[in-house]
């Protein structure tokens, strides 16, 4: 267990950040499912929301920038086929 006040604070802080990051990753998964399930005009709106969320998560360091690019590229090719 932590011995100092600052170590205790760091534990609290990291737990809070971990919870927030988990929430963002879960939201990304939900948005991806919505994109896959959507059709037509709904799909383009869902894709825009997903791309925006990916960019925000990558900017904040929650996911790696290359992962965001990979998902956006796959989404673009999926939309082009449809």
Automatic annotation (TrEMBL):
<dbReference type="GO" id="GO:0003735">
    <property type="term" value="F:structural constituent of ribosome"/>
</dbReference>
<keyword id="KW-0689">Ribosomal protein</keyword>
<feature type="region of interest" description="Disordered">
    <location>
        <begin position="1"/>
        <end position="26"/>
    </location>
</feature>
<dbReference type="GO" id="GO:0005829">
    <property type="term" value="C:cytosol"/>
</dbReference>
<dbReference type="Pfam" id="PF01649">
    <property type="entry name" value="Ribosomal_S20p"/>
</dbReference>
<keyword id="KW-0687">Ribonucleoprotein</keyword>
<dbReference type="GO" id="GO:0015935">
    <property type="term" value="C:small ribosomal subunit"/>
</dbReference>
<dbReference type="GO" id="GO:0070181">
    <property type="term" value="F:small ribosomal subunit rRNA binding"/>
</dbReference>
<dbReference type="GO" id="GO:0006412">
    <property type="term" value="P:translation"/>
</dbReference>
<keyword id="KW-0699">rRNA-binding</keyword>
<comment type="similarity">
    <text>Belongs to the bacterial ribosomal protein bS20 family.</text>
</comment>
<comment type="function">
    <text>Binds directly to 16S ribosomal RNA.</text>
</comment>
<protein>
    <recommendedName>
        <fullName>Small ribosomal subunit protein bS20</fullName>
    </recommendedName>
</protein>
<dbReference type="InterPro" id="IPR036510">
    <property type="entry name" value="Ribosomal_bS20_sf"/>
</dbReference>
<keyword id="KW-0694">RNA-binding</keyword>
<dbReference type="InterPro" id="IPR002583">
    <property type="entry name" value="Ribosomal_bS20"/>
</dbReference>
């Amino acid at each position: 267990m932590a011995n100092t006040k600052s170590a205790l604070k760091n534990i609290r802080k990291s737990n809070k950040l971990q919870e927030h990051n988990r929430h963002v990753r879960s939201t990304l998964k939900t948005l991806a499912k919505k994109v896959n399930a959507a059709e037509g005009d709904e799909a383009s709106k869902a894709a825009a929301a997903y791309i925006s969320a990916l960019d925000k998560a990558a900017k904040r360091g929650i996911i790696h920038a290359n992962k965001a690019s990979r998902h956006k590229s796959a989404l673009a090719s999926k939309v082009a086929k449809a």
